[in-house]
Amino acid sequence: MIEYLKAHPDEVTQYFIAHVWLSVLPVVFGLLIALPIGWLASRYRWTYPPITNIAGLLYTIPSLALFIIMPSIIQTKILSPVNVVVALTVYTVALLVRVVADGLNSVPEDVRAAATAMGFKGIGRFLRVELPIAVPVITAGVRVATVSNVSLVSVGALIGVAQLGSLFTEGFSRNVMSVVLLGILLCLLLALILDGVILLLNRWLTPWQRLSGVTGREIPEPAPQLDAKKEVVA
Amino acid sequence: MNGMVDFLTDSAHWSGSDGIPHRLLEHLGYSFGALFFVILIGLPLGLYVGHTGRGALAIAGTANALRALPTFGLLIFVVIALSGVLPGSIAYLAPSLLVLVVLGIPAVLSNTYAGVQSVDLAARDAAKGMGMTGGQVLWRVEVPNALPLILSGIRSAILQIVATATIAAYVSLGGLGRFIIDGRAQRDYPQMAAGAVLVGLLAVILDLLMAALGVFVVSRGLTGRYARTPRGQRIDPGVPPATSATPKEGIVPA
Asked: Counting one residue from A and one from B, how many pairs have CB atoms under 8 Å apart?
């Protein structure tokens, strides 16, 4: 494993960097798309069931299938990395729409009323009051999306997109276990790093969470909404 | 796109050992075979942990770690590790099935545990107060109340298994994934796209069937679905539906 790393340092570094981009870009795009849709589902309650049901259905499509169907839908080349980014963006949106809506719904009504009384309204109240309060809940969803993306990106090696998953296909075709193990460990490392970065961002975005005892209100630990399809059963 | 439709409507692709029906049956065979073992292991373990509260931390930790583990890498690792040990034709099948089972268990295990945990304490106490034994409390109170979450765990496990079985075609498993892997090897995009659409349809249909099953199986006391109650006058079930709990499970579209 170490020998492989020493023999191909540039190759492995390139795989790692490509893996970072392919995992992170969909989360950024996905969050930007999920915010307005989640707001819609929270603001107009009747849109919540259809939006979350459609999101749940999108989430059921296996990643390899979505990677391959993408070129027919967005007219890209079959082996283009864009397919992976767009497909993972779809999953991220599907996961986060519900999380954003639930996060916004978790904003206490008296807080909203107080903000309104102080003159906040419309988009200003959303951006400066409701969204910041929902950040911990949204963070939990973003962590799940990011960590699962790291795993899903590696499947892209099957359609020829070079990243850490290429170590899996290489290891398999040459029947070398250590190369596969290297890929697994680097994926885990990347997931750990990205997860840490998100936690730091969350800390920076919610300074009031560190002032325990000052606000008087216990801010509940955000429970990750992992199951995008739960509502269908209910 | 047109090529894909041609592939799907060509009668030659609907018969034989590499035809669509046979590949579909293979895919279903692997999936439900793996699901059988997933439920056999995950359900009792989840009920035990939920009922006794022992080992809850270990479950949460394992489920989170498994989410970060790359499915595809694990599959190939296990196949290489076991292929030298196992004899003949089992060497192709067993490692993949093992991985399908391993990846399916966390969803069922953690959801079953979360479901039992989220049962209203008052309901559990009332059952004990009525003189029910531990086993009776589990089977007559905790399991029916936890059923929505248990079913949603099984549902997640099915999706995970169906998706991973598709990838397993790369390590020579049969099933619908073959169209994708073979199509890629032969630079035959229509075949790949047809395989992808079939897999996507299979996943969505299985998911909808599980949703329908949930409607029929879950107690009406939980869902508030009373057939003869006029609209707008639903009887409040009192106990909040167990589905409002948040399961700590790691479903990931693999």
From this structure: 187
Residues near A145 by beta carbon (within 8 Å), at least 6 away in sequence: A27, A30, A91, A92, A95, A96
**Residue at B49 is within a domain:** yes
Res B234 pLDDT > 80: no
Mean of pLDDT over chain B: 84
B38: left (phi over 0), alpha (psi -120 to 50) or beta: alpha
What residues have CB less than 8 Å from B165, skipping those under 6 apart?
B27, B30, B31, B34, B96, B100, B173, B175, B177
ipTM: 0.82
Q: Find the CB nearest A61 among B67, B69, B200.
A: B200
Q: Do A180 and B193 touch (CB under 8 A)?
A: no
Angle, to 10 degrees, between the axis of helix B56-68 and the axis of helix A177-205?
A: 110
Give the right CATH number for A2-208+220-233 from 1.10.3720.10, 3.100.10.10, 3.90.190.20, 1.10.540.10. Answer: 1.10.3720.10
Q: What 8-state DSSP symbol labels residue B228?
A: T
Q: Which residues contact A157 (CB under 8 A, 6 or more apart)?
A: A163, A165, A166, A168, A169, B72
Provide the number of structural domains found in chain B.
Answer: 1
pLDDT digit string (tens) for A91-148?
999 999 999 999 999 999 999 999 999 999 888 899 899 999 999 999 999 999 999 9
Of the CA atoms within 13 Å of residue A73, those in its CB half-sphere come to 15
Which pLDDT value is given to residue A183? 95
Looking up residue B210, the CATH number of its domain turns out to be: 1.10.3720.10
**What pLDDT score does A67 carry?**
92
B154 pLDDT band (50/70/90 cuts)? Answer: very high
Does the CB of A183 have a partner CB in chain B at under 8 Å? Answer: yes
Examine residue B254 and state whether it is found in any structural domain, yes or no.
Answer: no
Domain assignment present for residue B228? The answer is no
The answer to whether B204 contacts A192, with C-beta atoms less than 8 Å apart, is: no
| pLDDT band at A233; cut points 50, 70, 90 | very low
Kindly state the percentage of chain A with pLDDT values over 70. 90
Does residue B73 form part of some domain? Answer: yes
Which sequence spans correspond to the domains of chain A? 2-208+220-233
Cβ under 8 Å to B: A residues 111-170: 144, 147-148, 150-152, 154-155, 157-160, 164-165, 167-169
Which pLDDT does position B242 carry in this prediction? 44
Q: Half-sphere exposure (CA, 13 Å, Cβ side) for A171?
A: 27
pLDDT tens-digit readout, B7-23: 888 888 888 778 899 99
The maximal CA–CA distance of chain A, rounded, in angstroms, is 68
The position carrying tokens 């915010």 is: A35
Q: What is the rounded CA–CA span in Å between residue B161 and residue B21?
A: 19
Expressed as residue numbers, the domain containing B172 is 2-223+239-244
